[in-house]
Each structure stands twice: as C-alpha cells, then as structure tokens.
DNA sequence: CCTACTTGTTTTTTT
DNA sequence: AACAAGTAGG
C-alpha cells in the first residue's frame, strides 16, 4: 500500500487517528497521499462509507474516487460504481463507497433531506445561481427604491456574499454600520435574505450556512452524521472559508479524525471568504494535531521551479520546494505587439509542439480574466487548432436554457418567484411592465408569493385585456407542467419546451442565432435523459442489494446538478484539444506545456486587487499558474491590448522584476520573426549576454524613445546588455525613470519635431 | 399599455 | 460588443 511513497508521504498515509495537517507544495503528490490514505484506512477495516472527503471541485472528487478504487482489492473495486456525480457519493444510498464531494454539493444533498427542519424552508427548495441572485438583488433595489448606479447589483452582491462568508447576520451588519450608505447596504442584505426565505431558495453561500445552522440546532442530525462519518478529510484547506471550517469542525470535533491538506502558498480565494485563519483555528481546536510537509516536487523541471520559487516564499519562506527531475527547456517570456500578435505567436508555438508530437490535451493556455480567451478562440478556429474553453459562459447560463429551466422551477415550486418572473412574459404574451407591476402589488397585498398568487382565482382581477389573457395562458402552461410532474424527467423538459411555445418564439425573436439556441435546447433534453439513466442505475443497484434509500425526485437532482456542477466538469474532456482556462480554474491541474498569457500590470496583478494583501494573492495566483507546468512554461505580455473598443497601452507585469537573474529567456517580436532567432534554439545553455548586442536596438544614451504609457523621453544612460539592459530615461512629461528594456514597452523614435505616428 | 428601437454601461477570479 | 435601462411609436 505504501509502495513508491517517500517517507513524508508514508507518514501522512499511515496517520489514521487524530487530527493531521498535510502541507503539500505543488506537484508533491498530494492526491496520491489522499487516495493512498483512504485505501489504507479501508484496508485496516474502516468501512468505506464512514469516510468523508471534501474536495474543491466535483471533478477532483471523481478523479480521487477513481484513483482510490484502483488501489483497493479488485473484488471491492468492482462492486463500486466507476464515476458520476451521484452514483458514488449519493448520501442517500449507502453503497459502501467513501463519500467524495464538494462542500456545496455535500450540503445541498443533506439539506434536500433535512431542510424542512429549518423554518420556513421545504425540501423542494431552489438553489439560486449567480444570475438568479443578481435578479433578486435588482428586485430588492426596486423594492427599497434604491438606485442601481449607487448600488451596482454585482458589487452589492459580492458585499452581501462577503458578509455571509464572515457569518455576519443582517442584524449584526446593521448594528455595525456607521454611515448612511452602510445602513442602506444592511437593509438590502436584510431584505435579500428575507426574500430568499420567502422563496424557499438558497444561494451558494446559504448552502453552507444553512447546514451549519442545521447541525447546531438539531443535535440528532449532527449526532447521526458524526456516527456515520468517522473520518473526515478536507482538501485545498487553504481555500476554505469560515462556514466550511465550521462544518468540518462540527463533524470531527468528537472523534477528532480530521485530516486537512493544502498549501498556503496556493491560497487564491480570499475574495470568497477563504482565510488563513482556518489554519489558526485548526491549531486551536485540534491542538494535538500532527503536521506533515511534502516538499519534494515530482511534477516540474528545475527551470520551472526556479521561477516558481521566486514567486512564493514571502509568507512561508522556510519551506522550499526541490526536485530531482531532469533539466528542461528554459522558461520563456514573449513580448508581443498586441493580443492578436500574442494569439498568432502562441498558435505558432502550439503548432510546433504538435509537430514534435506533443498531445494537445497536454497544452494549456491560462489567463487572468475570461475575456482573454476570445482572441485565441478566433485564431484557433482560423488555424484549425482544436481547443476547449473551460469555464466562462457555461451552457446552463445560456438564456434559452435558463428560460426553460425557469419553467420547470416555477411549475415545481410556487415560491420560486425569480424563476417565475423570468418567464412571465417570455415568450411575449402581452404582459408588459405595468401589468407585471400590478400583479406583483396584488400578490404583495394578498401576502402571497407570485407563484401562489398566480394559482389563485382572484389573480386576474387586477388585469384587463391582453395582459389578462397572457397571464391566463401562463397559468395554463404551468398547470400543464405541474400535472405532468410524475412523468419522466426527459418528458418534462421536452414538455416545458413545447407547452411554453418557446421554439416559435426563438425563431421570431432571434433571427441570427435561433438555430444554435435550438441545438442548445436539444442538448438540454439529452442532459436530462443522461441524468435519468444515472439515477435509474443507482436505484436498480439499490433494489438489487436490498438497501433502502430515500428517492430524491429526478427534477430536483437535475436542477441541483446544473447549479453545482460547473460547465468545466460537465464537458467530458476530449483528447486532442488545447485547454483554455483562467488561472483560478487551473488549480489542481497539470499540463506538459503551459502558456500564461496577458502577464501585464493591471491584469496580473489585477487592478482590482486590494493593497497589499491583494497583491500577495495575485502573486500566489501566478505561482499557481507557473506550477501547473511539467516540462515547458511560456509567459506572454503585449504592449497593446484591446479593451471594450479601444486600444490600451500595457506594461509588463511588475512580477517580472522578481524574476530578474533567473535563467528565463525573453523573446521579442511577433509571429514571423520571433521564433527564428539563433539564440532561442539553444535552450539549455545560458544565453550569452552579447546576444542582443549583435542587433542594434537603437537605444543609446542621447537617443529618443517612446514609452507606450509614459510618453516620449530621451535616454540618459544605458547599462548592461540583452535581457538585463537597463536604461535611464528623462521623459517629456517630466520625471526620470529606470527601465529594463526587455520589460518596458519602449520603441526607439526619431527626436521630437517629427510627426507623431501612433501604431 | 405594449413593443421596438436607441443610448449608455460594462469586465476579476467561482461554488 | 453585449446587455440593460430609457424613449418614442403604435
């Protein structure tokens, strides 16, 4: 069982009882340790179903289960399901497997069973995704007659989420608020929470908070869960927030078998409430803990680790990663003109790799913000490079898909008003703004939710004409759907599309894109039938083994899956596709070749960071990106980048200054010239310092340069060569500045009085 | 009172 | 460039 493990890994694997913290650097075999530890527990007689392992994504959960199964004796592995979001980890089916889930899906599943114990929720509660939340915030603003420009819904929502992750109640926030604005925000929070309850809905944060409440207020539930889960493991502990920690603590404080694994250097979710405090809390609550540090890296070349180590270490400098891996190519930094040149240059690179036999699925393009994927997608389409964008606008966020799902939700729950409002006049059925307002007021006066009101006889009294007919029509559609709720899930989805008259509406209102949107709806039906298949296989296995389990209705499961399983995880990663994703979603993954694009100031570090902790987190984010690479790492930055509809000059990331003196190679130039300079081929040796000298870069004392942000200036002095050539410049706007030529977007220009031609 | 068109704003990261 | 709120016509 401990085959091929290093001593530190072995200690972690064989530590079974009592609290354990594993500090695991990138590529140090953390997943290996976790899977071996689970297998090791089972081999000493621990019942698999008494093991709970919380992972950061559903994909990681599946992967971990798969790898654990291969470590178990065949007989045991064979009777366990291969994979799937509800098969192996269904809480309601004690099928003998360890429960591997994310916090959110673990909570959702428990709440489905127990939420009726928490007033006023009932088991068909809805899970609100960010679009639903946004709609709810907008409604609250309207409700409180606040203006959306001074309370931008998105910013407001993230403030609410922040409070919720701190576990501050609306009342507390209200008490603590000093300014008028703060008090208004507290009112929004209060009303928002009130509406969620009324609507029998939980947002993502609520899933965690409601479970904490359930465990605290209902000792019998807590008791039964403690009895069931004798061993609790939390992965990516550095990215857990307060409610998540509390759940872990509540479950484990009695038997104390809590194992947390993580890496403080990879903490990148503080904006979601993740906090290093959880390590402190762990130490306080479980003082008898043991600690194991895994610092041998098995993933990357020394070149990559050298760069990584420059980016880590301010916080936890004591710990240094090392590797025995063999040397690889130098880490390269490409400087390009703009985002199109960047895409072209990197497409070249990818084609070269492919020609060398590198599999596309071993190549990843990473970026700070989703918007950067666009140019690459266009370029890849043009060049016929197969790719897959992970994350971003997901399938289930598509308008047409959300609309049909809203029909299903509104039919299923009379309290899900966000869903109902979404489809009130979609397709258009003559119910305008004014009529909706009247209807809402009437419902409010009657003390009902919209859904309840709609189903009452007096619902239509306030309306006349077209609007009245329209509401009648809507009511009929929902009635049809509700009365067919016993039908198969696939039929229900199909029926929602038909009864709503959605397809004709699409063709009329979306002349450009209706065909694609129709295909998306067909895919939705397919997804429903897939869910159904999984569910029926679970039920039949349960029936065969004579075990009892609480059947959750298929629609609830379908909606839950859609809300909690991200697009990235739904898409079966096909071979032969280059992956494009944000640095955040790259966490936990590894690739042979990694390209990090847009390594520019205001992007990495992002301009919205808070000082100075924010910068630290941005640095860790780059660290995470860098350490995804096994063999080759390339970073790029452009001198210009399109934002909205104008070109902006860009500066290279200030993080590059931390990399000075490493053996990274800087390459300038675009697609055509770039890859054919002699010195790049020699990737193993040190770049000779005079490599740049051969070509006159036109930058000498006395010559003029233009800096794309700072403007024109005259070079006062120059030292060094090549990548380390520094110049001192006096700018026209005033001020002197030291610049590293390779980093700074400077171009030699003729002395002033010349015409100013901007690129 | 509804709908189609015009105008202004928007992009950090995710369960 | 895409999406919501605001405005005029029907």
Query: How many distinct beta strands?
Result: 24
| Overall pLDDT level | 82
Global morphology: globular
Largest sheet: 7 strands, parallel
Query: Which structural class is indicated by helix and strand composition?
Result: alpha/beta
Rg, Cα atoms, Å:
29 Å
- Low-pLDDT sequence parts: 82-91, 672-695, 754-759
Instruction: Report strand order across the widest sheet.
Output: 13-14-12-15-16-11-19
Query: What percent of the residues sit in helical stretches (DSSP H or I)?
Result: 40-55%
Strand content: 5-15%
Oligomer: single chain
The rounded distance between the terminal residues' Cα atoms is 63 Å
Figure out the total of helices: 29
Structure characterization notes:
- The protein is of the alpha/beta class and about 750 residues long.
- About 45% of the residues lie in helices and about 15% in strands.
- Strand 22 (about 725-730) and strand 23 form a beta hairpin.
- Helix 10 (about 205-215) runs parallel beside helix 12 (about 240-250), helix 17 (about 400-410) packs across helix 18 (about 415-425) and helix 17 packs across helix 22.
- It is globular, with a radius of gyration of 29 Å.
- About 45% of the residues are buried.
- The chain binds a DNA duplex (15 and 10 nucleotides) through helix 5, helix 10, helix 19 and helix 21.
């Amino acid at each position: 069982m401990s085959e091929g493990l290093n001593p530190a890994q072995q200690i972690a694997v064989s530590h079974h009882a009592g609290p354990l913290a594993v500090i695991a650097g990138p590529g140090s075999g953390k997943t290996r340790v976790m899977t071996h530890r689970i297998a090791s527990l089972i081999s000493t007689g621990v019942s698999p179903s008494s093991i709970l392992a919380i992972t950061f994504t559903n994909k990681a959960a599946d992967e971990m289960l798969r790898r654990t199964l291969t470590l178990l004796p065949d007989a045991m592995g064979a009777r366990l399901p291969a994979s799937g979001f509800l098969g192996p980890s269904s809480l309601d089916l004690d099928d003998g497997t360890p429960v591997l889930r994310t916090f959110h899906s673990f909570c959702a599943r428990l709440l489905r069973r127990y939420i009726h114990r928490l007033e006023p929720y009932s088991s068909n509660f809805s899970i609100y995704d960010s679009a639903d939340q946004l709609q709810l915030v907008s409604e609250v603003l309207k409700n409180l007659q606040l203006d959306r420009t001074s309370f931008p819904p998105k910013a407001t929502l993230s403030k609410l989420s922040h409070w919720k992750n701190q576990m501050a109640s609306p009342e507390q926030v209200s008490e603590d608020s000093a300014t008028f604005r703060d008090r208004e925000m507290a009112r929004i929070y209060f009303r928002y929470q009130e509406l969620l309850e009324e609507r029998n809905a939980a947002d993502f944060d609520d899933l965690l908070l409601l479970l904490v409440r359930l465990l605290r207020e209902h000792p019998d539930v807590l008791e039964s869960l403690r009895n069931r889960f004798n061993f609790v493991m939390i992965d990516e502990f550095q990215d857990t927030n307060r409610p998540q920690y509390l759940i872990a603590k509540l479950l484990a404080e009695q038997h104390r078998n809590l194992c947390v694994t993580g890496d403080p250097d990879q903490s990148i979710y503080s904006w979601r409430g993740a906090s290093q405090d959880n390590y402190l809390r762990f130490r306080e609550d479980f003082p008898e803990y043991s600690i194991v540090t895994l610092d041998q890296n098995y993933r990357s070349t020394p070149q990559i680790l050298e760069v990584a180590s420059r980016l880590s270490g301010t916080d936890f400098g004591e710990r240094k990663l090392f590797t025995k891996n063999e040397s690889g190519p130098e880490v390269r930094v490409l400087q390009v003109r703009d985002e199109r040149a960047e895409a072209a240059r990197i497409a070249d690179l990818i084609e070269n790799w492919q020609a060398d036999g590198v599999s596309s699925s071993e190549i990843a393009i990473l970026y700070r913000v989703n918007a950067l994927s666009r140019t690459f997608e266009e370029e890849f389409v043009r060049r016929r490079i197969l790719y897959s964008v992970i994350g971003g606008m997901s399938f289930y966020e598509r308008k047409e898909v959300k609309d049909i799902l809203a029909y299903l939700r509104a039919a299923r729950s009379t309290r899900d008003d966000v869903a109902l409002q979404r489809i009130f006049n979609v397709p258009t059925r003559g119910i305008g703004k004014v009529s909706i307002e009247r209807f809402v007021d009437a419902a409010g006066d009657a003390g009902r939710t919209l859904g309840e009101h709609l189903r009452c006889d007096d619902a239509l009294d306030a309306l006349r004409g077209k609007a009245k007919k329209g509401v009648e029509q809507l009511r009929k559609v929902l009635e049809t759907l509700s009365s067919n709720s016993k039908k198969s899930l696939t039929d229900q989805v199909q029926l929602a599309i038909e009864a709503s008259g959605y397809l004709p509406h699409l063709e009329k209102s979306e002349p450009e894109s209706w065909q694609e949107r129709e295909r998306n709806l067909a895919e939705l039906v397919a997804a429903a039938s897939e869910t159904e298949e999984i569910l029926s296989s679970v039920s039949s296995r349960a029936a065969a083994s004579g075990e009892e389990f609480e059947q959750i209705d298929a629609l609830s499961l379908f909606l839950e899956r859609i809300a909690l399983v991200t697009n990235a995880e739904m898409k079966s990663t096909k071979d032969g596709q280059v992956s494009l994703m944000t640095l955040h979603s790259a966490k936990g993954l590894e690739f042979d070749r990694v390209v990090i694009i847009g390594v520019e100031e205001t992007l990495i570090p992002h301009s919205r960071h808070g000082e100075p902790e924010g910068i630290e987190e941005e640095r860790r984010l780059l660290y995470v990106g860098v350490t995804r690479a096994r063999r080759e790492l390339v970073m790029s930055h452009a001198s210009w980048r399109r934002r909205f509809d104008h070109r902006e000059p860009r500066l290279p990331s200030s993080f590059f200054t931390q990399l000075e003196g490493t053996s990274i190679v800087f390459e300038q130039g675009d697609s055509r010239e770039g890859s054919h300079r002699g010195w790049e081929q020699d990737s193993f040796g040190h770049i000779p310092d005079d490599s740049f000298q051969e070509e006159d870069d036109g930058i000498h004392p006395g010559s003029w340069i233009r800096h794309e942000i700072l403007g024109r200036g005259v070079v006062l002095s120059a030292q060094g060569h090549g990548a380390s050539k520094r110049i001192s410049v006096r700018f026209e706007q005033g001020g002197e500045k030291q610049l590293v030529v390779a980093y700074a977007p400077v171009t030699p220009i003729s002395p002033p009085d010349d015409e100013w031609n901007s690129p």
